[in-house]
Design goal:
By secondary structure, the protein is of the alpha+beta class. Helices cover 27% and strands 35% of the residues. The chain has a single domain (6-134), classed as Gcn5-related N-acetyltransferase (GNAT) (Aminopeptidase, 3-Layer(aba) Sandwich), CATH 3.40.630.30. An 8-stranded mixed beta sheet has the order 1-2-3-4-5-6-8-7, with helices on both faces. β4 (79-88) and β5 (97-104) form a beta hairpin. This is N-acetyltransferase domain-containing protein.
């Protein structure tokens, strides 16, 4: 799915929300590795589950022609600083569902980029057959959980001792979902 670029001015930062293009693939590959290394909030360690430039080129193309996939990037100061991807299920029994996630460079936290990405995805979903969006978030990421709740996501489950972080401790994963209006 492709959307029109959106310029956002807020919290001392001007940024653009747009769909990625093929030329963004290499930057996205490097950005994902960097973001993964900045926080324990994501599922991967830096370099795990690596997506190459070619992988991103394929994803960008597939999402651009999909009726249920949404891939958006946030671009500020002439670089990509974050992205979101909402991927619809290809299985007929789950064709009404999509999985959702957000990644933002740590230095750009607090500028409202995450909220803008969530709002854009929710607007896009209204025009599709997607009726439910699901996500997972580590239980200690209270700020993200509160933001998701403000947008109508509810906790649907808890995976106990689901992950082990670098500190050697076990952490729970919260499963959240939202039915579209």
């Amino acid at each position: 799915m492709v959307i029109t670029d959106k310029i956002i001015k807020g919290k001392n930062l001007r940024y653009i929300l747009r769909c990625p293009i093929k030329e963004d693939a290499e930057e996205l590959s490097k950005l994902r590795v960097k973001i993964d290394g900045e926080t324990e909030n994501l599922d991967r360690e830096s370099g795990e589950g690596l997506l190459t430039k070619e992988d991103f080129e394929r994803i960008i193309y597939e999402d651009s022609i999909s009726k249920t996939n949404i891939f958006l990037i946030a671009e500020a100061e002439e670089k990509i600083v974050g992205f979101t991807r909402c991927e619809g299920s290809k299985l007929s029994k789950f064709r009404h569902k999509a999985e959702f996630g957000i990644c933002i460079l740590k230095e750009y936290w607090g500028y409202g980029i995450g909220k803008a990405l969530i709002e854009s995805v929710l607007i896009c979903v209204k025009n599709t057959e997607i009726k439910k969006i699901s996500l997972t978030v580590v239980e200690t990421n209270k700020k993200a959980i509160e933001i998701y709740k403000r947008y109508g996501f509810v906790q649907e489950g808890l995976l106990i001792n689901d992950r082990i972080h670098k500190d050697g401790n076990w952490y729970n994963t919260v499963i959240m979902g939202k039915f579209s209006e």
